[in-house]
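User: Good morning. I'm curious how phosphoenolpyruvate would be positioned relative to this chain. Could you predict the structure with it bound?
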Amino acid sequence: MGANPVQVRVLSPALCELGPNTRTLEDPLNDRNDSKPVANAQAADSTWSPESWRDRSATQQPLYEDPGEVQSVVDHLKSLPPLVTSWEIEALRSQLGEAARGQRFLLQGGDCAERFDECTPDRITSKLKILLQMSLVLVHGGGRRVTRVGRFAGQYAKPRSADLETRDDVTLPSYRGDNVNRPEFEPEARRPDPELLVRGHTCSAMTLNFIRSLIDGGFADLHHPEYWDLGFVQHSPLRAEYERMTDSIGDSLRFMESVADATVGQINRVDFFTSHEALVLLYESAMTRAVPHRRGFWNLSTHMPWVGVRTADPLGAHVEYLRGIRNPLGIKVGPGTDPAGLLAVLDLLDPDDEPGRINLIHRFGAHKIAAGLRPVLDAVKASGRTVLFCCDPMHGNTETVVPSSGPWKGMNVKTRKFAHILAELEQAFEIHARAGTTLGGVHFELTGDDVTECTGGARGLTDEDLARSYRTHVDPRLNYEQSLEMAMLIAKRMGSWSR
Ligand code: PEP
Ligand code: CO
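Assistant: Good morning! Here's the predicted structure, ligand included:
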């Protein structure tokens, strides 16, 4: 690879970096990402090390049976190549700094939980397509450059509200993601198996490798929009509007090419980054490496790890681990977040108020954002910090419905309503505008496939439709059409705010 994660041939000027040199950060050969500590491997604070989290209370961790087996897995992981590089991570950090200042917009999205058996070319391609299409729509309507960050190539571990699950008279450990155990309700499947962490590394590497190849090969080139077509949306109500948009971008592209006498793809390319929740600390710390010629430690399993609402305790192991790595960090913020506690977390994770270091991902829910978000914005603003604020309109809007007819009649089904997701986002834009802060990004659980997990949207999916193609084992995702529609609605909203 060159000096960037995944490089996309450019679609429109706003999608790309302005200038060919913005991304040539360093000589790639300097970044060997050795796993062995090197002379300049220096933690910002001498009390921190990649293992110092072990002295804190670590919630949401798998309970493995055999410590010897765990140690040999950790040793194996430490010997494996990293998945990303520190100069890619630095490139993302600088883009997130721009997003925090309102000069860019972050689009972060992907599955709630990736599955090993979905590490297939079609699934990976459709995820990439929907994120690219959404970013195109956001650029077109919102007029801001967009940074794309996938919830993929490592999103294999899930926090759970309960350690155990009971069905009839049987109680087993909860499913915690493919990195930990398997979803089938059987004792052997639910047993946490440390070897799955190595499998997670392998699937992440395969996913990222395929994404890098697709994009380097020109998959995202607007000169070939047919690559992005998803067959099942031939008759989508959104298709005409989307095609109008790509046509108009294609016209601008041809105009620019004739003026510049070059193809825009030769002038500029754009990036794609990865993220996942830093949950299983054995994995995250095994993938934490020192890098020659740079100070500090880097989590080289992903560009942007995030800490979830269940593990963002300032005294806990997750915050202890994250404070010592150099990556940009996501922090989830929700109805249970106390603003003073959040400031304590920010002091630990971002003592120097570095641009692009913190992505505060708020997820209150359509009914709670009006009361909950403003105190958080005011507290952060009063602290004088510049963070990136991003809205996750998914996690506060999960509900259980009971379809009154159809194959799942009378059953409890976890879903989300398109209208609630949109309502949270619309309120987020308004609350930020009133508070004098900037909403710099969005965070979605989505898939490029034709699933039926969330209701509503242009096709008006109902509770009775859920049984048709409900595939998630954890949270419900927007399907391809719902995701594209959401992007169109946000883009319109962003356009009207900026006028
Ligand atoms: C998630 O992003 O999948 C998640 C569990 O989020 P949260 O920590 O916000 O509940
Ligand atoms: Co989720």
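The chain has one domain: 52-498. Residues 1-39, 266-270 have pLDDT under 50 and may be disordered.
Let me know if you'd like a different ligand tried.
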